[in-house]
């Protein structure tokens, strides 16, 4: 309760499953200031099953999400988000604390950046699909390219190994496209061509970009510039057959 500012306060309890096979009961308080949603809500997070640090992590992540929804009603989206992502936030905060104790140097336990190369069979609802991929890449701080060349669609991602794994989960479990009758559907025609640690000869992508190439040469140059010639010759030509 915030007596000094008027507005609305929501108290919400949600139970989130599938965290180490136990239900986590989250007590969320959203205080919506008068000029919400153009001002972010105050959020407080409590749970008997989580440590104080984990509750703080969940709160920070919720506020990060809230910023993305600024000026549009967001409480419902934030609740959905926390239901879907709680386990990752907690897993991440658990690894962060174990990394801090294990390594004071600030190198990650997974040791460096990972890279993922995916091949998609088709995109029926291309504009929406592309937008979704861009959003996931930005949410998970992944860089790389979404590449179109003729009928070939490739997604090349670089980033934290745990974020790459989470990307794959999203890609396989979310309704990203539409089927032939226009109904939303999950991605079934996706193949992971390669998932590997980024080596020193590989260049790091600074951003995530969507690019169209008119020839195979152009596509090959993109890979070469990134020091990924072997990756290209191993995985791309077979797709043309």
TrEMBL record:
CDD domains: RWD_RWDD3 (cd23819), RWDD3_C (cd24164)
Entry-linked InterPro entries: RWD_dom, RWDD3, UBQ-conjugating_enzyme/RWD
Residue ranges occupied by any RWD domain in the UniProt entry: 1-89
Keyword terms: Cytoplasm, Nucleus
Stored Pfam families: RWD
Any Gene Ontology biological process: positive regulation of protein sumoylation
Name recorded for this polypeptide: RWD domain-containing protein 3
SUPFAM superfamilies assigned: UBC-like
GO cellular component: cytoplasm; nucleus
Main location: cytoplasm
Recorded superkingdom: Eukaryota
Annotated localization: Cytoplasm; Nucleus
